[in-house]
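Study the following:
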Amino acid sequence: MRLGAGGYGIDGDTFFSLPVMVNKLYGKGPHYFELGAGMTLFAFNQDRYSYSYCSSGYVDASGQYICTNTVVENYGYEFILPVNGSPNLMGTLNFGYRKIPVDGGFTWRINLTPIFNNNGFWPLFAGVGFGYAF
C-alpha cells in the first residue's frame, strides 16, 4: 500500500494532494510485475482567469476603432484532465516492472500509471523510480 502527500503554495496559488494506492507484486525476485489501483484526493484554489479581445471591428469616420465582436475566454483549472471544482478525486492505475535485488542493493522501477476521472481517461502518464533495498 502507498500513501503520500504533496502540495505547494506560491503567490496565492495553492494545491494539495493525498494519493492512496494498493499495489501487488507478481513474480520471483529480483524481477516483479507490479499491478495496482488507487485514488488521489486533491484540493486547490479555484481562481479562474478570463481574457477578452476584439475579434473584429472597423474604424469610424472620426478615426476611432469600433469593436463589433468581443470574445471572452474563461480558463478553469485542469490537472491533466478537466476537473469539476475543488476538492476532487482522480483515479489511477499502475502497471510496471520492478527490480528488487534478493540480497539488497540498487533497486529500480518503471511504471505506466494512467489516470481517470468523470471527464476522461489519460493513458500516457508514466514514472521511474530508483532506490536502495536493505
